[in-house]
Every structure is written in structure tokens, then in C-alpha cells.
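Forum: Protein Structure Q&A
Topic: Joint prediction for protein chains with partners

I've read a bunch of threads here and the consensus seems to be that you should model interacting components together rather than docking separate models afterwards. I'd like to see that in practice. Below is the full input, 728 residues plus whatever partners are listed. Could one of the regulars post the assembled result?
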Amino acid sequence: MTTTHSYDEARTERLRADALAIIARYPEPRSALLPMLHLVQSQDGFVSPAGIAFCADLLNLSTAEVSAVVTFYTQYKRHPNGEYTVGVCTNTLCAVMGGDAIWEDLSDHLGVGHDETTPDGKVTLERIECNAACDYAPVMMVNWEFFDNQTPDSARDVVDRLRAGDEVAPTRGAASVCSFKQMSRVLAGFTDGRADEGVGAGEPTLRGTVLARERGWTAPRFPAAPDAESGSGAAGSAVPERAGEPATGEPQSSAQRPATGQRDKDADTQTSTSKES
Amino acid sequence: MATPTSLAPVLSSHWDAERSWTLATYEANGGYAGLRKALTQDPADVVAAVKDSGLRGRGGAGFPTGLKWSFLPAPDGGPRYLVVNADESEPGTCKDIPLMMATPQVLIEGSIITSYAIGCHHAFIYVRGEVLHVYRRLLRAVEEAYAAGYLGKDIMGSGYDLDITVHAGAGAYICGEETALLDSLEGRRGQPRLKPPFPAVAGLYARPTVVNNVESIASVPAIVTGGSDWFRSMGTEKSAGFGLFSLSGHVARPGQYEAPLGITLRELLDMAGGIRAGHELKFWTPGGSSTPLFTAEHLDTPLDYESVAAAGSMLGTRALQIFDDTTCAVRAITRWLEFYAHESCGKCTPCREGTYWLKLVLRRIEAGQGTMDDLDVLLDTCDNILGRAFCALGDGATSPVTSGIQYFRAEFEEHITAGACPFDPAASALFPTPPRDAGRLAGQMAGTVQA
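Posted by a regular:
Agreed with the consensus. Here's the joint model:
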């Protein structure tokens, strides 16, 4: 094999130790393939031919079998990726809310199209699909950290700072965006110790929680347990004990109102005609 | 009218707590009480409690969770697995990701209780790879749970052992389909398997396996602690309990609103400040892009499984994507079909070819180059996908097309007769944008097109 199609000995040894740690997480070795490919990307910045050979060798697969997996998943890059993958959501909701405009502006600004990298090797631009942050639309991801509620100006500012080498903080995520290779190592299952950075939730995530508290709405309290120990509000994940909240059955308590099931019995609803088989 | 429904935060009740994601915060708010209780019970009783609660799968299909667990064959001495589906990718769906970001421990606790109930000693959480910080939080949550003795050997002195592996995917919507997810977790291309056998019989490594959505599993600790009657005190008879309703799009205050099933969009919109100022509701999805569109006539449809089905759609994941009168229905539907064509795994012909052709025909109509016959081609193509595809991806892809033509046929026809899209895309954006493509803006803004 040529040098481009295999790792040198030192590199193979280092990667092998990591790969064996991944394999040890699973009852069957082949389950390690996806994280091992993330590991390869953490080494090479893409899924290199050498990385494919490495995975095939360790898992007793052919390189064709490994390649077949690689080509199925969009996060595996077939050519060297930039230091930052910048993804603009252009699925319907984000697109309509302004994602299309952000995409066009960013593509113009950077002079690259989908899955293309700026000449300085800093930014690989992508159109991405829904990333489960629709209440923060339009959304942009940088190395799969959330940049919420974007505009063309804010998105431009982010990529300019990335290219200038500044530290850039996502809206919800670590204190700063890490590199594509560092990200890939985390996705291979090796922690970087940054889980405690950043917020627990953004404003849209909390809207129901905050509104319920303002209006004194709660889920019904858990029934008192026979033993006093678990009866004092330290009960599961539900119902926080907070001053000013109504107790079950009192005015403003949601337990006071009839279950919405009552509506099934209202004449004007059609809930009895289920279409489900 | 029935009494207005209010919110009922259970999973979301502590999302705003200081360092909400840590074990310490979770325990300070009652976390792991459910596991303590479950470990004193017979596993079969835990299954029975969840079955009695009426909890239905929160990942979209709505299959009764406890019933799914009870389908596992009797133990034969070999391994049994729990696989948590954390591959949230359905357009519009944005509940599991914030849940795992804010309170990953509730998912860990639910996974431990579920594993105990079904006799599993190695559980997996398959999270999509495109949410780096959520993956960090899950890894850390598992680490903390091991350190506290909630995972590993002899959990809390019960003699029960469990390991959890958090596994990151690599970008493929289809892996949210449970059998594709299993193939992916086995290190293969994520393509669906023929069913039967169902995962309960032959799942991960061909062993009995339960695959459940994040929100379903996260609901388990509260059900165990509060009991099935407590859970049933919310929601409707056949759609028991609470759920996260995710409002997005042209609403004043989009976000997560946790409420009893059976709440209506009108009630939710009232909480969310209504449609953005100066505009009216045009169409919405009750449960993600794979569920047929609704319009303003469905504002009072109770959002429970039965009522939504009776009105011609599906509750899905309660992903309420809301579009106002500035939105071109043809543009929205075309974009969704581009998504399905991109994400079709290629295994079965109806979906692979069908989504491809739907995409092309829709693009042509959107560009003003379609013909009236194209509408029949679209419906005919949908007819050849629905019920003929290997998995639900193909079926779901037809939903926006058939419902879109049902409610907005005139708008499709207008694109064809006018030879251009009558909408200004800049009008639907949240910020002012300069016009970029004069050709697209040939027609003047049409406002709401009558269905």
C-alpha cells in the first residue's frame, strides 16, 4: 500500500488504542464503526482512504464495506473539511423565516457553495436539514453547535470572526466553538470536559416553563406516598415546590379543572371515530 | 366549551434551574425517586404500571409504550436491549434535543427504570451526531450516574447491573426509523428492515430489543413515582398524560409548551402571543412535516391522537410549525419534498423514485413552469408511494403534497397560470431582506390565497 492509503506505524498505534476503547463499548465490534469514522475525521479532517483501511483492518471488514457506510452519512466528509463547518438550515421552516436569505448572503460573502471550503481552509459551507431547533429559527450550526435566531448580518459576523481566528461562542453550547477535528473526537465518544459550559436552555425552550409559573399552572401533584419520605415535594421530576403555587384542587391548580378527556364526551368533538387501525 | 386547558410542566418543570443539567440539580428537585421506587418493585409491576398509564410513544407513531415492552419474549438467558431513539430529525420537531440539553438525567433515570423493567443490562442512547453539546451533556450525565451508583454493578444495592452507552449518529434522517436505527447502531448503512420480525423479537444483534423515543422514556420516572392514575388524570382517555408541544414559525413567542394531550392550537397560540402581528394563520403541521397540513379550520381540534386522526392528520411529535399568510404553500411543500428526496435511503423503489419525481415536478410548478396535468402527476405519484414504501418515510413524504393540494389547489394553479410564484419570499422572513431574484417576484404579493 502507498503512504496515502495507510497510516504510519506511530499514528496507527495511537489510533488503535482509541479504536479499541471504542470497540470495548459495544457487545459486537462492528457497532464501533460510526464512532471510529468520527475518530478518523478527528485525525485527518475527513474520512481518508487511510482511515477507511484502518477501520476495515480493525473490524475485519473490506474497505468497500466501510466505504459503503461512509457514503451513507452526511457528516462524513469525502474530502478535507475546513476548520469550521458552517451549516445554514434551509429546510422549510427556517428557509421561510429567512434561512434562504441567510444562505444566499453567506454563499455570496464567502464565495463558496454547498460543501465547498474557503481558500483559507477555515470555513466549509453547507445547506443543512432540520436540526431540531425550529423554535429558534432561522438556525445556523457551526461545528454542530447552535447559533440561534440568525440574520444575514449576524451570520456574516460569525464567519468573519471565525476566519479572523477569534473565539466565537454559540448561542447554546460550549463557551466557544471548537475545531472540526476536536468536535469529531468528541463525537467518537471522547469527552473534552466542556459539558458544564454554556446555558441549560434558551428563551424559547423555557417559554412554557416560565409562563406556567407566572400563571400558577402546575401538573397535578403526585399522590402522597405512604412513607413520609417521598411525600414532601421531592417527588420525581414533576411538580416543583415553589412559593405561591396553588396546591392541588385549589383555584388555579390544573388538577382542579376537569381532565381534557371530558371533551371526548362533548357533542361537538369527534374523538370516538379513530382512524387508527 | 370545555374549561380552557392550562400547561402542565412535568419534564420541563426545572428546565430553568441553575445548572439544570447536573445530577445535583436533578436530585435536588426529586430526581431518582422513581428509580428508588422501581427497584423495590417486581419488574413486571413496572411494566404493568406503564401499560396502565396509557403512555403512548412520543416519537410520532403513538404506539402504547408499555404494550411494546410486554411484547418481548420470555427471558432465554441471552441479552435484551433498550435502545433510546434520540435521533430527533423530523422537520419541525424540536423537543428531545432541548430536553437532553437541559435535563439529560431524566432520560438516564428513565432508561435505567425501563431497562430494569424489561431485563436489559446494556442500554444505548442513539443521539443524532449534529448536536455536539447535547452529546457532551449526555456523556457527562452517564458519567455522573455511574459515579453516584445509579449505573454499573449492583445499582443502589439492588443486585441489578446496567451499563449505558451513548452513541452518536452521523447525519441521516432515516435513522429515526427504529429498524434503520438498529442497523446504524450495528455499524451499517441506516436502512430499514423488513418487519416482522419486530425489534421486540429480533432487534439489536437479532436479540429482543425495545426502541423508544426520548420523551417516552423521560416520562417513565414520573409515571413510576406518581402512578398510572396520576398520569391518566391528564389528557384524554385514549391519549393520556402530558406532552411537549413545540410551536415554531410565525408566532409571537415560539417555544416549548408542555401540556395535557387534547389542548388545542387556539389555546396554545393564546399562550404564545398569537400569530405574528399583522398576519393571519395560513397553514400548520400538527406533528411535523410528515403529518398532513392543517389550516385555520383546525384551530379547535383537540391535539390528541384520536381527534387529530379524525380530522385527517396525525398527532406525530406535536411539532406545530406555523405559517402565516405571507408563506407560499408551494414553496413550503417543494422544500419539504427536497428534504424527503435527499433523505430517502434508496432501499425501496416507490420512495426512492417517487420522492425524486415529486421533487422535480414541484420545483417546476414553483418556478411557474408547471402544467395543470402536473397536479395529477403529483397525486398519482403519491398514490404509488403511500402504503407501498418500505417504511414510514415514503408515506410521510406524501402528506404535505396531498394535503397541500387539498387545501391550496388554487395556489398551485395560480403558479401554473401566472407562470411565476405570486409570493414575495422576503415578506415571510423575520428580517427585512433585499429582493434578490427579480424573476421570482414577477407577480405582486397575493396575500392569502383562498383554498
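Residues 40 and 185 of chain A are 8 Å apart (CA to CA).
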